[in-house]
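Person: At home tonight, work slowly through the protein below, taking as long as you need, and write a paragraph about the fold.
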Amino acid sequence: MSAAASSYAEAPTRSITAGGVTYAYRELGPTGGVPVVFFLHLAGNLDNWDPRIIDPIAKEHHVITFNNRGLGGTTGKVPATIEAMADDAAAFIHALGLDRVDVFAFSLGGMVAQALVGKHPSLVRKLILAGTGPRGGKGMDKVARVTYWDILRATLVRADPKEFLFFNRNSSGKRAAKEFIGRVQERSAGRDLPVRIQAFRTQLKAIRNWGRAEPADLSTITQPTLIANGDNDRMVPSVLSEDLHRRISGSELVMYPDSGHGSIFQFHEQFVPVAAKFLQR
């Protein structure tokens, strides 16, 4: 059995309630097997996922994207901590009747995914962590400063902040940024609600506190883990991906040259087969 939509741009937005929160989500691909749940980045909503990543993975897997509490079309107030965000993610997954999922997590979503594995280890089978870092990682608490600076730079030239936050400002990075922004705008109807400024600020504060907290014991992550980033991630420094790789036993690391935070979007044609093979094994 397959979801009716043939592409992410056409997938209907659904809702489900758990713990007093009504979560907005979309799903695509064949049902059955272990679903892949996508965890969003800072200030992201359902429309921020690159269809060139979602669509090919959904050819073989049941893909689920969702807004955590207080974001986009999901009700409630954004939690103040990464750990509370992980509890909400677990509540959403359980509300769908799922007890085992693979997690594809980008940026802030990768922090939430790490906390989810720590608090609800039996829920996660495999883990993909892109453009993210560990609790207490060196430089993690600088994310807010870089974010505000790049938002200012983007505002001055009337660009989408993700063009500055996710991509290098050289010719190849600028071209990749424009292409990515075009792809996430392919959905013309039923678009998600924008993320509110207060929600964004609460998320940024939670990231800063995550960065300043006691370093996590990553030896507790025993799930097969694929880590990906660009070699020039200014937002969540690339060295943190290498740190994750060293500390998560048996993890795999792919680093893309001459790219930044959004390397998996810039190099989607190379990354998707790697991710699909990892999930399929």
Summary: The domain at 8-280 is CATH 3.40.50.1820 (Rossmann fold). The mean pLDDT is 96. The chain is about 40% helix and 15% strand. The longest helix spans residues 197-212.
